[in-house]
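Q&A log
Question type: sequence-to-structure
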Amino acid sequence: MTEVKNGQSGAATMLRRFVPLAILVGGLAAFFALHLDRYLSLTMLAENRMDLLAWVQRSGALAPVAFVAIYAVAVAISVPGATVLTLAGGFLFGTVLGSIYSVVGATLGAIAVFLAARTALGDVFRARAGPTLRKMEAGFRENAASYLLLLRLVPLFPFWLVNLVPALLGVSFRTYVWTTLVGILPGSAVYTSIGNGLGALVDAGKMPNLNIILSPEILLPLVGLGLLSLLPVAYKKLKARRQGA
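Response status: OK
Response body:
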């Protein structure tokens, strides 16, 4: 009888561990089922820009809170369209405040993904990892800050994937949070500055280029910052090699 109860308790505990992740996956499914993706488009933002500005004026302090909450939920359920939200932040609140609100919202959403994935999948992933994967995990954890800054700064990796992988590789919560905050700030500043001039662009019959961050003028400095973040890793390896010699 005791074994049955222990088994039921263990199954209930395992089920509870998957609840946060199931909520996020369910939110993503509901997002597309309700066709909410049509609202996260540049065309929709341009067409409703005057109404959005009027709403910000009426709402006062509620507007940035609502924006951060919407951004956080969008990132948590990993919907496409974060770039459009960042543009909206610059358009509605200006470059500086828009960058701050976008980074805060994105970081909160990324934290939700991290905690849900670590709770549901972290132990399972590590338990089934082979020797090669364990070695990679140990190396990643040892230099987690440098690797995460590289992944955040260089916009070549899907945001949802960079949110998920650290949870599976055992990165500490504190390292994950501060590298997310710092790493996404440059890219967010680029898009909010574009969003800040969205009204003038639309009035001139133009639309912003969402691939601008991949242009050499912007991408190369971001890659340079990413490479700088790897200097501690290079130093550790050089020091270890000298000591070994």
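Response note: The chain is about 80% helix and 0% strand.
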